[in-house]
Every structure is written in C-alpha cells, then in structure tokens.
Prior knowledge:
101 residues; 5 strands; globular
Amino acid sequence: MFHLEYDDHIKIRACQRNLSPDEIEFIIHHATRVRRTGVIFCQMRRKDMPDDIPPNDPLHRLVGSTVILDKTERAVITAYRDPHAFKRDRRKSKYNRGLTH
C-alpha cells in the first residue's frame, strides 16, 4: 500500500474518535469496501477481523468503525464509529447522475 494523505479534518476526527493512524490503516487494509457517492467506505465488520487476532486483542474495538477514502484511495476523508451506519451507507446512491434543474 502507498502513502495515505491525512488532512486536518481527519486528524481532528481521528482524535475525537480515538483512532490512531495505525488503526486507520488496519481498517483500510482489512475492512469491507463499498463504493458509493464517489467515495470508498471501508467498513470494519466482525467477520472482517483476521482469525489470527485473539478475541481479547484491543483491535476488536475497531469493529463498527468506518473510514472513508477518496476515489483514488490515496486520501482519507473522515472516520467514524457507528455499527448501524453500514446499512445506511450501503443504501446511498452509487454516483451522482448529474441531474440539473
């Protein structure tokens, strides 16, 4: 994987949500990816956790976290924790159809 870009917004959000850069990269590497609305949602589900990580490992607290990447997969846009957001994120439109009024 290549170097990820972190802007000021993601640095603030990561601190607020208690996510380190290493944890963000772990989520990006292991999570399920869903492409919607021109971005990539990396959603860490329980079944995405590698089997070789013991159940009492602190990485299990990342289940329910989402990291959003830009479409080039080089810049982290934001991150949040909400296990119920997975359904909501999957229902978002795949792309902007460019409809004008």
